[in-house]
Every structure is written in C-alpha cells, then in structure tokens.
Specification:
mainly alpha; 0% strand; single chain
Length: 248
C-alpha cells in the first residue's frame, strides 16, 4: 500500500533541495541498505572483539556489511529532509526538531563507521590479538560526537511524533502503524564495531523500511520525469567519482 499525501501534508517538492528524485531514492534505498548491511554480518558476536574476529576470518563479508550500513546511513539525510518537509506543513516545530536531531544522529553514526573502518585496518596491520587490545584500551576515549549519542536514538521518536501529528505517513491505522514503525529506529544500537544483528536491531530496521519505503515510492511517482541527460550524467558520475576516490 502506498502513501497518499493529504492536503495537510502535500508539498511541492520540485522546487526544493535536494529534489524529489534524490529524496525518493533515498527514502527507498537508505533503510534497505541498512538492513542489508546488518543481515550481511548476521551470526557474528555483536561487540568489538567478535566483530574484529569476524573481520579476520571473513574480511570481504565484513567490509561489504559495514560499507552497506555506512552508505545507508548517508542516504538517510535526504530521506529525513523529505519527511520533515511534509511534517512541517502543519507541525513546523516538530519537523525542525525531529529533522535536526535525526540528521545530527546520522553524523554520529558516520563517525562511528569511520572509526570501525580504522579498527579493521589494525587487524591487517597488527594482527587480531593486538588490534583487539588496542581497541579495548581506547574504546571509551573522548570524542566530540559523544554529544549526539542521545540524538541517534531520541531523534527518531521526535520525528515519529511529528509525523503522527501531521499525518505525514497517511491517515488511519496504517498511518499510525508507520509512525510507530518509524519510532522503532530508536532501538538500533549505536557505537563503534556494533554487530547490530540481534532481533531488536532487525525489528528496528524493518520498521524503518516499513515507514519510509512506501513514502519514497509515492515521492517518485509524483516527481516529474527526469531529463535523459540528467539520468545519463548521474549514471556516469557515480562510478567515475568512486574510481577517482580510490585512485586518489
């Protein structure tokens, strides 16, 4: 079932940034990539000693898992922007606070992803045992992004309440269910080298997908058809940017 925007939440997305196509794709791919990333490391211990051991045993699998999760995290910011804009039509305060808190939380998760990447490199450079000792001795070190840890969890609840008040997820029981599902994202564990494959994490990401993917489908259906050259340029730029980044 797709979501039909009501007159209270309808908004002209054509003149907004980053635009309906970016937002629609992000609403769909963001939660699905997060879910794929978590499922890819399913069965491994959820804390850093086990995650490092899993990398030592299956580096390709763990790199794929963490890469999918990081990409999904980054893609969520246009998705959150799109949802917050719809909420802001009737509940601007909830939209501003919810959108801001969630995006700040996403910054924190990207920071955690970078630290996790470095920890995996320690396994290659120092060996598993030495890497585990290094991470254990520095795990509680101060960093400025500790300040957004509460936002990583609480932001989704604020956004979900705003979506409920604005009926941004649709009216009736389905709309309420999607708002509740959105709030479940607060249950996803945070921090460095977290496996996040426990049932609570999977339920949180399934809820996020249930809430956002139908909205993304609606946004794309209502978006004007893109110009052919814009599609071709986008398809060409993605691998080109990746190759330049790797070579640089």
């Amino acid at each position: 079932m797709t979501i039909t925007e009501t007159p209270q939440t309808a908004v002209d997305r054509r003149a907004t940034l980053p635009g309906p196509w970016v937002e629609g794709v992000s609403l769909i791919l963001g939660p699905l990539l997060l879910l794929a990333g978590v499922l890819a490391r399913s069965g491994q211990a959820d804390f850093f000693p086990g995650q490092l051991a899993a990398y030592a045993a299956e580096p390709g699998r763990m790199v794929l898992s963490y890469s999918l999760f990081a990409a999904g995290t980054v893609l969520l910011w246009p998705a959150v922007t799109s949802l917050a804009r719809g909420i802001g039509v009737t509940c601007p305060g909830w939209a501003r606070w919810g959108g801001t808190l969630v995006v700040l939380g996403l910054f924190g998760r990207v920071f955690h992803a970078g630290v996790s990447h470095l920890a995996f490199q320690l396994v290659d450079a120092l060996g598993l045992e030495a890497a585990q000792k290094a991470v254990a001795s520095t795990y509680g070190a101060f960093h400025v992004f500790k300040a957004v840890n509460v936002f990583i969890m609480g932001g989704w609840i604020v956004l979900a309440v705003g979506a409920f008040r604005a009926r941004a997820m649709g009216a009736g029981a389905v709309g309420v269910a999607r708002c509740v599902a959105l709030a479940l994202a607060a249950g996803l564990p945070l921090g460095v080298l977290k496996g996040s494959s426990d049932p609570i994490s999977v339920a949180a990401l399934l809820g996020l997908a249930f809430a956002l993917v139908p909205l993304g489908v609606t946004v794309l259906r209502q978006a004007p058809a893109p110009r052919w050259w814009a599609v071709a340029l986008t398809i060409a730029l993605i691998p080109a940017a990746f190759l330049l980044g790797v070579s640089g």
